[in-house]
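From the pipeline queue, job 12 of 40. The input is one protein chain; the requested action is below.

Action: predict structure.
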Amino acid sequence: MIQAIFGDADEYDLLHGDIVEDIPFFVDLAERVGGPVLELGCGTGRITLPIARKGVEVVGMDISLPMVRKAVERAGEEDLPVMCFVGDMRSFALKKRFPLIIVPFNAFSHLYTLEDVEGFFRSSLSALGDGGKLVIDVFNPDADILRGSPVRRLVGSYIDKEGREVVVYGTNWYDAFTQVNHLKWYFTRGDEQWIREFTMRVFFPQEIVNYARLMGFRVEAVYGDYDGGEITASSPRMVLILSKDN
């Protein structure tokens, strides 16, 4: 059975629950600004909830209803005053203005066309207050991965709610014309197997910087990691700090 990767929020949490290296970076940003913070592509609240735990007002938006429901459920379990709602970051309009908008963990890679990217930047610009910052975290393209391979690579593993191990392998093929990476993940639990498929747009450093400038943002910095390191061809991440001029 083939399903989209974002349709099962519990499965998503189990597979991505050990990803924590970006949390201190975004929590520190939120604390320095003081809120309110808008997170686009909030998922199940992996970043949203740690920000809320610090007493910073945070609002989460995601296009996936199962993800948003899970984020709201998790916030409720901790009695955190978090508001999350279903929305499309390609086109949104909010009454509130935010001093900080964050787009963590490759959410930006789900913008596939020029119209998608323009709509995202236009909507984000409108949602920012004067001098507000937009922070985008996306993977820095890896040439080896983009070559694609029919050989399955280990993605990760987790223990499900019944205590059984699930092992995940993946393949990919990259369409260089559309700059879209097509991924297929194979989940195996004993004799059971199921497949999740999804796509991610690949952005290159100069490309995304130029998009931001053309859409009216000032590029304050581009880091190659969460420690503020200089970006190079081998950096794992592209972390862009963009600002809205007064």
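Job complete. The CA atoms of residues 90 and 116 lie 5 Å apart.
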